[in-house]
């Protein structure tokens, strides 16, 4: 339950991330196998998503470095924030999609995104397990019966990594159900993860920083997800009704 080196500087955190990426990729592939998507279209989407994910990792580091700069006044590349990576990667995906957009890509867009959400959730689940094994992203001091004592802390804390992992696993199961019913998985993700992450931030014990209205950077980014979800609901339901 701590980042002891396994081999070549690799810890259980990196192993968990790798497992998450592998399982997420398998889930994505298996879900898309159930759809009749032309190979050319599928390859295009795989390429766009791969580039978006790569940029997502870059954005995750840059956003965290930016928040650290606001706190310390010194800019240096350090750490990463998942929400910054997700939002940044989503923007890159949207831009690349618009550049390559064709009628075929548009026809299968919803199916691809709906298949990607479960893979993202299960990958993130293993990522949070990795955070628990690393001892980072821990919660506030507590006497709660689920409290955990990490070796580098002198008091028991909320295992917020495991709390979030449980929510991610529940959302993953729900996303599979929604996928089979051919509903919008993205809305589930934006509301489910956005709201839960906003709440869990109140339990975090590591330095979160205080920005707008004493909210942490992750809470601000969580609000963006929630607003995005509200926009999609309005667009898909209310506005659609008015255009009939």
What brief labels describe this structure?
single chain; mainly alpha; about 240 residues
Provide a quick synopsis of the model.
The chain is 70% helix and 0% strand.
SSE blueprint:
Elements: H1 12-33, H2 39-72, H3 82-100, H4 103-134, H5 160-180, H6 185-200, H7 217-242
Helix pairs in contact: 1-4, 2-3, 2-4, 4-5, 5-6, 6-7
Q: What can you tell me about this protein's structure?
A:
By secondary structure, the chain is mostly helical. Helix content is 70%, strand content 0%. It is built from seven helices and no strands. The radius of gyration is 19 Å and the shape is globular. The termini are far apart.
Biggest beta sheet summary: none
Integer average pLDDT: 86
Round the Cα radius of gyration to an integer and report it.
Answer: 19 Å
Give the CA-based shape.
globular
Total DSSP helices: 7
Topology, number of strands = 0
**Percent in strands:** under 5%
Q: How far apart, in Å, are the first and last alpha carbons?
A: 56 Å
* Helix/strand class: mainly alpha
Low-confidence sequence ranges: none
Helix content: 55-70%
* Sequence of secondary-structure elements: HHHHHHH
